Amino acid sequence: MALPSSLNRYLLLMAQEHLEFRLPEIKSLLSLFGGQFTSSQETYGKSPFWILSIPSEDIARNLMKRTVCAKSIFELWGHGKSPEELYSSLKNYPVEKMVPFLHSDSTYKIKIHTFNKTLTQEEKVKRIDALEFLPFEGKVNLKKPQHIFSVLEDYGLDPNHIPENPHNIYFGRWIADGQRDLIESYSVKKRHFIGNTSMDAGLSFIMANHGKVKENDIVFDPFVGTGGLLVASAHFGAYVYGTDIDYNTVHGLGKASRKNQKWRGPDENIRANLRQYGLEKYYLDVLVSDASKPSWRKGTFFDAIITDPPYGIRESTRRTGSQKEIPKGLEKCPESHVPVSLSYHLSDMFFDLLNFAAETLVLGGRLVYWLPVYTPEYTEEMVPWHPCLKLISNCEQKLSSHTSRHLITMEKVEEFENRDQYSHLLSDHFLPYQGHNSFREKYFSGVTKRIAKEEKSIQE
Ligand SMILES: C[S@@+](CC[C@H](N)C(=O)[O-])C[C@H]1O[C@@H](n2cnc3c(N)ncnc32)[C@H](O)[C@@H]1O
After folding, report:
1. Of 350, 314, 301, 304, nearest to 226 (Cα)?
2. What is the CATH code of the structural domain delimited by 182-321+339-425?
3. What are phi and psi of 403, to 5 degrees?
4. What is this enzyme's catalytic activity, as reactions (predicted)?
5. Which residues of the chain does CATH 3.30.2130.30 include?
């Protein structure tokens, strides 16, 4: 695909983690900052090197202030499959675009970056010397250069077959690094208030990015737990709000999830988590509430709904219930045994979630959530849908040999008319995910373990 000539070419160096989540993250962020995703590559597959076109350096910088999937971005000056190809590509790069960064008053440094191979210092120096033909007029400054240039060599993805020569070589001017540091600084290991299902920091930021969360947005998590997803959204300047059916979680009471600690301490709650990161001003509130019975008046309140509903594995899927709703066969239970919460089928939960999102999101707002699936039975048609919501991306994260969860991102594209109008979507025909109501049973049945064992013995 030919690129429009008005666009500058950039090289993104991607992290080799959560591969499936990378493209939707970059696409979502570019659309947030007014840049369309244009690429010269048909598919980015697993490579850490992505060439793409962006209208301006400002947009490239904004992208890097948000991404946790990309490590760095470079303005691409040249690219080739051999050193000769790279040098001739560099000779074709317009000198007037180079000069502002190479003039005699400037300082610079050249770095060599290799993927899947380590070079000796001598080899690195050789590569730097070979670039002598570029019109560098400034002084080298290794400690604090004004401009950093990088040669990036790609030796493929297979550590068992490292080629003698790189598949691709790039040369570019470094512009900015991404936000990979957030994964460490927001790690749940160091977080004040955590639970068994607290969302990993890296994935929380990816979810907020898929959700196009931006400053002054209002973000809601209906299954808020310990608020891991609120923390990530607040970091990007959104006001956050959540609900959970569990009184103890919302109030930070009950048993602690940390080893060597029996009960939660006096200030272990979501507000304190936000305070820990200097984000308390973004805390709206958290309430005890059942997602199956939303207590909201009509209106579009949220810019994004970002959530991790329960799958029934480490926490139960529940909804509030009354005596009238007690399943047949249990009527004879003595009154003291009447359950105050009933099981909440996964398909009903996702139907409710999509309907709620369609009703309460602003137009263009996004719903981002995890859908657990039993992989042997999974087909794309199973992903719940709604006429007001468009599927933006569907990324798989494997949990075991036969189970995974999919990160689903949807965007509200139609105004919601009336709740009753969508009730037909509850029928089998419209709810193909229904078969997965037994996800929990399948997960615990031992079937997955047995199959994994069988597969292992076949491989041996
Ligand atoms: C997977 S956890 C969410 C974890 C959260 N993202 C975090 O970082 O801690 C799911 C949460 O949903 C809650 N939950 C279960 N059924 C619910 C319901 N019907 N309405 C609201 N919350 C519910 C559980 O109490 C649990 O805290």
Report:
1. 314
2. 3.40.50.150
3. -130, 150
4. guanosine(10) in tRNA + S-adenosyl-L-methionine = N(2)-methylguanosine(10) in tRNA + S-adenosyl-L-homocysteine + H(+)
5. 8-178
**Ligand 1 closest atom vs CA 221:** 6
Report residues whose beta carbon is within 6 angstroms of any ligand 1 atom.
Answer: 195, 197-199, 222-223, 225-226, 228-229, 243-246, 249, 290-292, 308, 310, 315, 317-319, 344
pLDDT surpassing 60 at residue 456? no
CB atoms within 10 A of CB 382: 19
Q: CATH 3.40.50.150 occupies which residues in the chain?
A: 182-321+339-425
C-alpha gyration radius of the chain:
26
Residue 445 has pLDDT above 90, yes or no: no
- Residue 338: its pLDDT value, please? 37
Substitution candidate for ligand 1 out of 194, 200, 245, 305 with most atoms within 8 A of CB = 245
Closest CA to 204 of 222, 188, 192: 188
Q: What is the pLDDT of residue 433?
A: 78
Q: What rounded mean pLDDT belongs to the chain?
A: 87
Distances (CA, A) of 252 to 227, 259, 453: 11, 17, 40
pLDDT band at 1 (very low <50, low <70, confident <90, very high): very low
Instruction: Indicate the CATH number for domain 8-178.
Output: 3.30.2130.30
Q: Treating both helix axes as pointing N-terminal to C-terminal, what angle do 19-32 and 201-210 enclose, rounded to 10 degrees?
A: 40
The C-alpha atoms of residue 369 and residue 409 are separated, in whole angstroms, by 7
Residue 452, pLDDT above cutoff 80 = no
Helix (H, G, I), strand (E, B) or coil at 328: coil
| Amino acid letter, residue 427 | S
